[in-house]
Each structure stands twice: as structure tokens, then as C-alpha cells.
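Provenance and format

Records in this collection were gathered into a single text stream. Each protein contributes a sequence line and a C-alpha cell line. The two records reproduced below are adjacent in the stream.
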Amino acid sequence: MNLKQQLRHYLAAREMTAADLAKQAGIPKQTVSDWLSGVPPRSLDKLRKICLVLNVSLDELCFGDCKENRKTEVKKQEQQAFVPEALILPINGSVSGLFEVRIKRVR
């Protein structure tokens, strides 16, 4: 999840509007509106104020539920564990090491 989705989620969960959030955090309404439309934040200080109002950590606000992210990151790492360029080649019935195979196009 990104900041846009997370903000929408927390606003809906707390039954708040963007204007309410901006007022409580002491930041311009346009800033919150920009974030809700997908504009990336430029000020960590403003994000920190939003986190205080919503009572969430900066990680949760920007990246979503940490447990869900860890699960997806582990799955991504498992999928990327096999690198097709690296092969283990058996020689005389034993494994001799890790070799890198690179193929170049010759014209």
C-alpha cells in the first residue's frame, strides 16, 4: 500500500475528512488533498504531524500494516532467490562450485 491508499483507509476508519485531518494536524488542506491524489510528500515534518493525529507510526502510514509487508517481502525474496545466471555445475559426480554464465550477442 502507498500513502494515498493508507490515508484514505485511516480517514475512512476514523470517519474524518481531509479538511478535518489538516485542521487537527495544523497543515494546509491542499497538502492533504495533494497526498490523497497521489502527489508524493515533500515534508517529513508534516507527515509526522499527520501520524500524531491518526495515532499511527510513520511506517504504518507510508507502507501499511508492517506484518502484511513482511509477508509479501519474504515471498518476493523467495521468488528472487534463484538467479538464472548462476549455475552449480556437477563435475565427476561432485559439485565443484558456483559459476556465472553470461551470454553476449555477437554480430
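Adjacent record:
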Amino acid sequence: MTTKQRSDLTNQREVLAASKKDIDTIHNYLKKENSTIYADIWKIGVNLSLRIGDLLKIKFSDLNITDRTLILQEEKTGKSKTIRLNNPAIEVINARRSKYPNDVYLFQVHSNRASNKPISRVAVSVKFKECGDVLRIKGINTHSMRKSRGKAMFDDGVAVETIAKVLNHSNTSTTLRYLGITKEQVLQTYDDYEL
């Protein structure tokens, strides 16, 4: 494989954060063009900033709507995480519970072949990539939900330390790299803030 081919492959895999406007555009597209499950996954994903593996394994029994909390153990890190369920998340949860009162999983498949199982990350990945392609929003995939929330918080002035805690990063340098804050952007601040 040549250097150019490797570079092209890396660029194809790059996960980008969606802007606030694009977050809504993606949700609306998924809601209109697909089953509501994909739109609901996107909406919950951008509001809870979970990795896709953790998101798809949420059971209704894990959710405490009264206290507005979800407590889970992250698959990747093994860390325990408590999440406050905000209003958009609660709306999706309540709608899904009302529509599918016998489901075990928040995002459960309703086919004979996979009863009582969550939807697969592959199925979600395919729909999200298709959505990004159709809408011409580069780099949209299952990780974009998490990254988009972090970037939206950063753009609104939330402290990097707080974002790191929300994303369960062990340090802020990981969060800065994750959000795409480059060395050049940091250096540019020396020119922008001449006191």
C-alpha cells in the first residue's frame, strides 16, 4: 500500500463532529428516511455522549426516569459512569417504552431472527454512513454522536476539564486531541491575545 493510499484510507475513516445544525439535519433525515430506531439512537447518542457499544446495551431496567439517571459500566474503560437524562433523552425513552412496552433493550430489534436483542452496531453504522453520504456531511458514523456533543460543548465555552469528565477521558490532552484542537490553534492564541 502506498503512502497516498494509506492517507486516503485514514481520511475515509476520520470521524468528524457534526455541527449543531447538522445534528438536527441528521436526526430529521434518519427520522424521515428510516425506521425511528436510527433517529432515536442518534438523538440519545448526541444527548448522552456514550460509545455505541454502551448505548446499544442500555436496558429499560438500567434507566431511572424518576431520578433522571442512567448508571452503567463502560465497556471500553470498565469505569462506572452516572449520566443525567436530559429532556430530549427522556422524551425518546418514554416514546420507545410506550411503543414497545415488552422490550428489554432501549434499542431492541423486532425481527424473528434476533428477538430480545439490541440492534447491531453494524446496522447502525451502515445507516449513519449512508446518512452522511446522502447529506454530504463528511465523516459521520456511530462515533460522531459522542464527538458532536463534546464539540458542541466546547464551542459553547464549556471548560475542557468538564468535557473530559463527561467523556470519561483520563486527561484533558486526550479531550483536546479528540475534539480536534490542533497545536496550530493553540499557537494562534498567542497572536489573537496580545495584551
